[in-house]
Amino acid sequence: MILSSLRMRVTVLAAACMLLAAVSAGAQAFPAKNKAITLIVGFSAGGSSDAGARILASGMEKVLGAKVEVLNKPGASGQIGYTMLSQAKPNGYTIGLASLPGIMVSIMDADRKAAYKKDSFQPIGLQVLDAGVLAVKADSPYQSIKDLIEDAKARPRKITVSTTGLQTGDHFSILQLQKLTGAEFAIVHFDGAGTAMTSLLGKKIDAYVGNVGDVLSQLKSGDIRILGVMDTQESPFMPGVKTFESQGISLLGGSWRGYLAPAGTPKAIVDKLSAAMKTALETEEVKSSMAKLGLQIRYMNAEEYTKIWDEYGTVVKELIPLSKNK
Fold first, then answer.
1. Across-strand partners of 210?
2. 3-state secondary structure at position 93
3. 322 vs 225, which has greater pLDDT?
4. What would the pLDDT profile of 140-197 be if each residue is shown by its tens digit?
């Protein structure tokens, strides 16, 4: 009986060792020669999310020695692309762009009826933080965040502030700002950054909330003034512009763009993809291309990316009920 049990344990152990060896060998062979990796982008071609993904894809191709093909699947604020990614084979040959907080909202908001959950995905790493900004027209009377907040408190729901759409990162940033300061804005939703900026320049709204990458040309031309950057550090593209934190408001906002694999993708393959991503982002070619778009590289590995998702997710979860009323 004892001998039989011992033999069974040895057999199980041997099988486990063979499985580990097979997984390791598979990771070493990944990606296979002449087999392309598909990178799903759940947004239209031409936007900053798509452009950043294409720059990374080109860089990773050179590191991995395999083609990385971007596949645009726009619709439902990225939800169509996320659904496709969640249903893909977990073999490393399908990965996808994930924009926070967008993917969080689709998972947490029951009304969105997403076909996936957080554990449907395996994080690979974070590529960029396109930090949020609060801007006004250059001739606006508001010289600081404090000026704007004080006026919004004195005149509740009279100061108009834009978003690029309902339940976008911009929307959540404004809701968080209201929660932190007690100010009440009249929130105006637009279909994208372009129409929101046009309204600001046309003096149809008082303030604009968007991302660094969306406002650089207007800042350089002198048409707008940035009151603050929603990050813990100043943007290299806006030297001298103060962060919200340095002005006494602990608000981290913007678009956190990273990459995911379907759940079940072997860790060794995820690690290889993450390492290739890091190496690509450190090349001068990729850094230069990203800088031209005003996109700040903020690489994080899978573990660090997961931590950001968890921390930011707590904030977003509390704001979702508020987002339905504004």
1. 133
2. coil
3. 225
4. 999 999 999 999 999 999 999 999 888 888 999 999 999 999 999 999 998 778 889 9
pLDDT tier at 326, thresholds 50, 70, 90: low
Residue 297, strand partner residues: 128
The overall longest dimension of the chain from CA atoms, in Å, is 88
d(CA 31, CA 9): 34
What's the CA dihedral at 155, 161, 165, 169 to 10 degrees?
A: -100
What pLDDT is recorded for position 21? 45
pTM above 0.85, yes or no: no
Measured CA to CA, the distance from residue 163 to residue 193 in angstroms comes to 8
What secondary structure letter does DSSP report for 295?
Answer: P
Q: Is 95 left (phi over 0), alpha (psi -120 to 50) or beta?
A: beta
| C-beta atoms surrounding 59 within 10 Å | 23
Q: What is the pLDDT of residue 167?
A: 86
Domains and CATH numbers, the chain: 34-128+254-323 (3.40.190.150), 131-247 (3.40.190.10)
Preceding peptide of 321 cis, ω within 30°:
no
List Cβ neighbours of 270 (8 Å cut-off, separation of 6 or more).
Answer: 92, 122, 124, 261, 302
Q: Could you tell me if 46 and 101 are in contact, meaning their C-beta atoms sit under 8 angstroms apart?
A: no
pLDDT-derived band at 22, boundaries 50, 70, 90: very low
Per the document, the length of the chain is 326
Beta strands in the chain (DSSP E): 37-41, 68-72, 94-100, 121-137, 160-163, 186-189, 208-211, 224-230, 254-262, 296-301
d(CA 112, CA 77): 10
The percent of the chain in helix, strand and coil, each rounded to the nearest 5, is: 50, 20, 30
